[in-house]
């Protein structure tokens, strides 16, 4: 059997076809450094990325491809006011959070790392995050966290609000939030947020990883083990990942300032509660040494989950716990 294409080869082919022009498979094989047989063996995967074969045998993507572009990102950011942040683009990488952490040795925040694909994308509690090529958004924002761990109390929730509002404004779909860091579309997971605090000498930096399903390819979607959603299946018009990334970055920078100024309870909490997917629902909160059943009652002024039990109203910090609807296996 001919070998299938790895993410680097797929990305090279998509770059070659990004202008919408047709090219023969032999030319694409040379450009991507693979055998023509590997392209033939991967036509179904390439089709998931919009590649179509013409009667001549040449391959093309009708209308071209909206690959990530620093120029387009900066133009989109500039259209949203004075947003000064460096955007660093990767092709295929391990994870953007890891890249951001490594870059702290040579540059100071703020900066953003974006990738077309991740080999080791991860979510909360170390779970793998499916990260196919040139399909979704994978980005990490490094920001100076001068107030230290106090920032993290509600930061993932605040970023969730920012991302949900940005997506809604950009593509017109309403999102809900699942404590502490999931974005839901029609009850299915659309995205997630992973916040890590890193100390570099005397400086503390928050690395905010954000993943959003823009258009999940069929060959990847079939392997995901939980209910998921993507934007493309709900939005008829083409979605510019560059414009959407810019909207998310700008919104996250704005809300980070709010959290840093200590205004989480006054400004962020009401906006989060409006999107609370589990409000007043029976839930189970479980962790290595904890299991609580009760009714979800929103969050407090620090971002802790409030669960009403027969004994008391409990406030639960995120830590290593998971939240799920009572009777559901989805955490």
Offer a few descriptive terms.
single chain, alpha+beta, five-stranded antiparallel β-sheet, 10 helices, globular
- The parts where pLDDT drops under 50 for at least 5 residues are none
Write the element-wise H/E pattern from the N-terminal end onward.
HHHHEEHEHEEHEEEEHHHEEEEE
The whole-angstrom Rg is: 21 Å
Task: Write down the overall geometry.
Answer: globular
Describe the protein in words.
The protein is of the alpha+beta class and 331 residues long. The chain has 10 helices and 14 strands. The protein has helices at residues 7-17, 25-32, 36-41, 43-48, 70-78, 96-103, 149-171, 218-221, 241-260, 264-273, and strands at residues 52-53, 59-60, 86-93, 111-118, 137-144, 176-178, 182-185, 188-200, 203-212, 282-287, 290-299, 305-308, 313-316, 322-325. α1 (7-17) crosses α2 and α7 packs across α10.
Summarize it.
With 331 residues, this protein is an alpha+beta fold. It contains 10 helices and 14 strands.
Record the SSE blueprint.
Elements: H1 7-17, H2 25-32, H3 36-41, H4 43-48, E1 52-53, E2 59-60, H5 70-78, E3 86-93, H6 96-103, E4 111-118, E5 137-144, H7 149-171, E6 176-178, E7 182-185, E8 188-200, E9 203-212, H8 218-221, H9 241-260, H10 264-273, E10 282-287, E11 290-299, E12 305-308, E13 313-316, E14 322-325
Parallel strand pairs: 3-4
Antiparallel strand pairs: 1-2, 4-5, 5-9, 6-7, 7-8, 8-9, 10-11, 10-14, 11-12, 12-13
Helix pairs in contact: 1-2, 5-9, 7-9, 7-10
